[in-house]
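[step 3/7] fold_predict: job queued, chain A
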Amino acid sequence: MAATKENPIVFYDILSEHGYWSPNTYKTRLTLNHKRLPYRVEYVSFSDITPKLKELGVRAMHYTLPMIADPSPDPNGKPTYVVDSFDIALYLDKTYPAPKYPVVFPPGTRAVQKITADLFTNKAGYVILSGMVPLTARDGFLDERGREYLLKTRKEFLKAPADTSIGSKFWGDAHEKWSWFGEILDLNEEGPFVTGKQISFTDFAIGGIISFIRRVEGGDMQMWKAISEWQGGRWARLWTEIEKLEKDSTEVV
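[step 4/7] structure written:
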């Protein structure tokens, strides 16, 4: 029995006062939309993630989100819980295969997608995240319990660079890393996506970082405006396609 609007996949996302924001959970949101799978969102405070997963009997090396609960084929059976955006995408491609459901990993690209997504996140993405993550601990962004938990458990990660303004060394490093990754993508002959014309998991990873920048920065989004002009608007063109997929949601409200 596949997920239906009446019995959708449950997608566990991280709670905030401003809707969804996590770059990691965003990848799963796009995966579900892309595969046209109905899902219901359950938001969990940072402080409740570990207790929630343990309560559900989930075994994981790290208690983190995203996580999905896929309904059992047996009406009386328990759902299948899957943690981690990459593992979720693998599971959904296997459980809901082509041609009925669009693929997240084009044939023969799973290993390459894993390498490429991690490469972008750890090199280009992390440069930006190091300056943006501390903003998530500001008053009014997360729920108060989640904010207190973040401040208590992520002190080192919340230390921001001394200067993240446009023109700073931080900004120069970010431009260098994003340009480096973009030049690799220029090896494709055409198309805005990592594989050219077909959207796939690594695009979701890049989209997650861009979405995070836009949502966390807020205001006039000066950082995103600068990034959107890099490399002749490459990242803006990709974001246009990602945003279309975000809005074409299969979430059951």
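[step 5/7] annotate
The mean pLDDT is 93.
The chain has two domains: 10-103, 109-247.
exit 0
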